[in-house]
Amino acid sequence: MRKYDASEIEPKWVKIWEEEGRHRASDDPADTRPKFYALDMFPYPSGDLHMGHAEAFSGGDVVARYRTRQGFNVLHPIGWDAFGLPAENAAIKRGVPPAEWTYANIEQQAASFKRMGMSFDWSRRLNTCDPSYYRWTQWLFTKFFERGLAYRKTSPVNWCPRDATVLANEQVIQGACERCGTMVERRDLTQWFYKITDYAQRLVDDMEQLDAWPERVKLMQRNWIGRSQGAEVTFTIKETGEEIPVFTTRPDTLWGVTFFVFSVEHPAVRRLAELGGTWDQVKPLLDKVRATSMNSREEVDTKDGVFLGTHAVNPVSGEEIPCYAAPYVLMGYGTGAIMAVPAHDERDFAFARTHGVPVRAVIQPRDGEPMDGDTMTQAYAGEGIMTNSGPFDGEETPASIEKVVKWLEQEGRGKGTVNFRLRDWLISRQRYWGAPIPIIHCPTCGEVAVPESDLPVELPTDVDFELGGESPLARHPSWKHVACPTCGGEAVRDTDTMDTFVDSSWYYLRYCSPDYPDGPFDPAAVAKWMPVGQYTGGVEHAILHLLYSRFFTKVLFDMGMVSFTEPFPKLMNQGQVIYGGASMSKSKGNMVEPMPIVERWGADSVRLIMLFAGPFEDDIDWKLIAGDDPGRRPGVHSWLSRVFTAVGEAAERGFAVAEPEGLVRLTHRTIQWVTADLEAFRINVAISKLQVLTNEIRVALDGGSGAMDAARTLVQLLGPLAPFIAEELWRVDLGQPDSVHVSAWPVFDPVLVMDETVQLIVQVDGRVRDRIDVAADIGEGDALALAKASENAQRAVGEREIVKEIVRAPKLVNLVTRG
RNA sequence: GCCGGGAUGGCGGAAUUGGCAGACGCGCGGGUCUCAAAAACCCGUGAGCUAGCGCUCGUGAGGGUUCGAUCCCCUCUCCCGGCACCA
Fold this sequence. Notes:
By secondary structure, the chain is α+β, with helices and mostly antiparallel strands. Helix content is 36%, strand content 20%. The protein has 26 helices and 34 strands. The model has no long low-confidence stretch (mean pLDDT 91). The protein binds one RNA strand through α7, β11, β15, α10 and β30.
């Protein structure tokens, strides 16, 4: 009998599958199979594959293989998100050109993916740093530019001093650079933006289509977009007569406004402070705010603020109220100025009490103590009845808000409006290893897009990567000097490159027709394959990549290039692989690499470790599943050994020896269970069902019976999970002529999955007292009679009287007693 | 602070969503084989009581609904994640 040796089996099949040209998605029009697009978030080539890759791609590969077996024409592509800072930083550190470092890592990862048995269509492989790809990234930029969706503006931006580049809002996590953790600084710079805010409403609305997304991801996107409905109301500055609009979600509190607050950075502040004679107090505050990074306000005190010496006029009451400048009002949201209602807003309340501003309650809760502005100790932000509000006294939220808005509009004092937290997407980066922004700055023509015929704008290779001063492209002696495409005069290229998230916002479209020469994608191929059937990847992309890709898709829809508005209707997030409760990292010295384990125990084992450890979405703590020795023999390897010998023995015995009926039934139930589990992506549970079947096959064989059908089924069901051992057993031991991975998914016999007998649970007062084997179609009367006849049940009832009989034939009888 | 998601044996996790809690696996204990080890195989493994048939307790804590609650409702504790002056 052969022994299971993955190192002997697996490399053999890698080679054979490659020779046989497996896993190609078919673009043959004669192929009538329904399509299925199984997409994995493409990797960044930072080195060899890590555990996170092993988990995510194992899950994605199960989907692709399972759908293939179900008769779908499956597109399961792979590529690399190959631009980005690590390559450039490696170049600075080691003197290796970014391209060289990147391509070497890609080759390494590609080899590892093959070794792991990933069923990728290698003919479609792409990478974003290839000019044949970024040509179209640039082309898309020019189209966005034409539509006014790419524009340049000067504004305060997040600057990472360590990476020497600006960052998008989405790349700043709690005030720090997402990539290197350095606290970002704020700089006023002229930068390129994509106008994602134009799509804010649609990005919210279309989430309705995403029922098959994890709720938390949708929630994160909703919070990030931050839609709030309210009104814009215009206040007038008494001293100058200028009109300053504010945004509020509570126009019903307009009669409770007792002061007015500008953001310290508001353009009117300096003028008004000088007029009011308070500029010498405001200026230090402004300097302090400017010095603080944009996203972290931990050093800013809510109660900080300075009276400007000027006043605003409340448009509904005509009342004059003092104007303040305070850091708690943000310049980047709403209008940069607010009406303050201390009685009904926590922050306004704190500010008012500190600065001695009156508090006036204008909303009374429906029940409980009435509020008094002079004595209340905290703001009341809830719903209630309007008081001290002129014509609106007695109106109740939420209807009152609508009434006030309507009235403001009629009176011309304001209007209903919606505000978003989402800002435009800053896409310029002052670094080298990215797609150059295809814009030429001409002294006469202004910003001119590089014409399509001149694309791609290729990166020069003779570049000085050292950090400092200008970006590498800006420092290059000749690269930026070009003739203006419009007037032919002397002009310069934009020397910034695009955020790598731009590259990854459309790669899934390129896979549909990776060699298409006339555009970013062949519209017919995209119409065929998109949208994605299942998208698999890490939750760390919940906001960035997924939001940007959704935005791109909507722009392309508006351009008439695609016919759908959401690219990924179904999303699965795998958990993280951690060690001892902490994320794995080189600096912590707790890294466990997948490839050494593949070498030692086999790719099938590594895949199964990942898939069996728990639900796909949950984190895997390697220390908990493998103990202190990360190289220990995995439990799933023992199982595969048992599968290997059991199937081998069953094959030797063949069909000549009869199979027990119980095993036949279990086989069909296993098909039913595993199919349902894979449909629901409960892979860990599916594996446990296969283990049960394996155990029963073992029992049958040890009892001298045959197990050929069960063994064949086991191998077929195992295929998507452990492709190597399944193929070896299928083709060698079971002698099948073609690959198990193209065999039809087994179907169960509905008669055989039904139980003939079941265990009737007999309870007395809700406690289990007996279990009786009964026919599955037993009637209620018979079930009750059997239950009452049970000695154990009778003993439990004792002298008491049975007052109620619950019968749920054939599963359960519950006798309820009294006495 | 606000918004989500959790909490089940020594560990990872099951439980057809109101009907046998702990499937399957890891680990551990005992055994077979072996000169020995590894591997493989067999038995046991929630806690307590009991010679035994069995009994009692048990799904973070407390309460409720129900014949019956890991599952539904209320209160609380702790853990994880996201956002954090967004007017």
